[in-house]
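TASK: fixed-backbone design
INPUT:
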């Protein structure tokens, strides 16, 4: 095995997965778990992201085993796909850190700050484009929750993705939202606790964002995006406003919303019996996601 290009083939839940370590911008490595259809390709590829990072290859192997239904569906439709992991989210790192500036010192790169988690995903996108069985012009993203906010951050400044799905995008930082008193600061860590934040109404959210900042970020988006809401979610107002601001800016954007009790319904999980728990709402939602991706990647 080449230590600089680690690829381990492992059968997970009956499917062959390629477990890889991808070098990101600062020379560290991010893990991915990739599946593809039979044959040489080149295939379109869809990259999957959920949550706020950390836990490494252990997380990837678990996602391939327990959240592999979406991979099954994508591979059956002719897509390669991969679960991604990236560094842990930094509280307000996107707001406070500013754009990443890359310079040189003594023949090596010099940054003004550490890369953030969404920049790891950009590095992974560029990596998968080099794989011989991937069509580099047909890369799509599905990001859920914080992964959905990462979709917004990525597409605002990187234009190498053909289409993206922001499912239940927790875009409070991206939209420069000032929380109300349903959020609070943890006295021990001095970091915000937003787990109980209630942002269900669009107009409430609209009144609490920094509109110039949000608009300047959205202005950079060139990628077609499907924004997905969830009717009973406490952040539904953020999801919907994410869509409305894109539409108001004239971006190519679609909106759907479903009534389901699972945060992350587009990524079904296995139940206690080992079988995937997928109901009619999820079948419809996933079919819609694949139909959206088909428009741009096939």
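OUTPUT:
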């Amino acid at each position: 095995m080449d230590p600089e290009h680690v690829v381990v083939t492992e059968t997970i839940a009956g499917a062959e997965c390629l477990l890889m370590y991808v070098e990101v911008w600062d020379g560290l490595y991010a893990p991915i778990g990739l599946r593809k259809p039979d044959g040489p390709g080149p295939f379109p590829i869809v990259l999957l992201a959920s949550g706020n990072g950390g836990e490494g290859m252990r997380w990837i192997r678990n996602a391939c085993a327990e959240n592999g239904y979406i991979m099954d569906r994508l591979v059956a439709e002719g897509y390669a796909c991969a679960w991604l992991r990236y560094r842990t989210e930094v509280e307000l790192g996107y707001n406070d850190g500013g754009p990443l500036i890359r310079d040189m010192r003594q023949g090596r790169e010099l940054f003004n700050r550490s890369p953030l988690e969404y920049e790891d995903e950009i590095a992974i996108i560029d990596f998968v484009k080099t794989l011989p069985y991937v069509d580099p012009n047909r890369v799509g993203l599905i990001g859920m929750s914080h992964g959905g906010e990462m979709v917004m951050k990525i597409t605002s400044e990187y234009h190498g993705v053909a289409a993206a799905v922001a499912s239940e995008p927790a875009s409070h930082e991206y939209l420069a939202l000032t929380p109300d008193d349903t959020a609070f600061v943890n006295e021990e860590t001095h970091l915000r606790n937003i787990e109980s934040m209630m942002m269900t109404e669009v107009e409430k959210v609209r009144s609490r964002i920094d509109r110039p900042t949000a608009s300047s970020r959205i202005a950079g988006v060139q990628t077609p995006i499907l924004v997905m809401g969830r009717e009973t979610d406490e952040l539904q107002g953020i999801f919907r406003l994410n869509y409305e601001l894109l539409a108001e800016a004239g971006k190519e954007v679609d909106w759907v919303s479903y009534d389901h009790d699972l945060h992350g319904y587009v990524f079904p999980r296995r139940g206690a019996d080992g079988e995937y728990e997928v109901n009619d709402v999820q079948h419809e939602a996933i079919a819609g996601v694949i139909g959206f991706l088909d428009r741009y990647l096939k």
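COMMENT: The CA atoms of residues 103 and 245 lie 34 Å apart.
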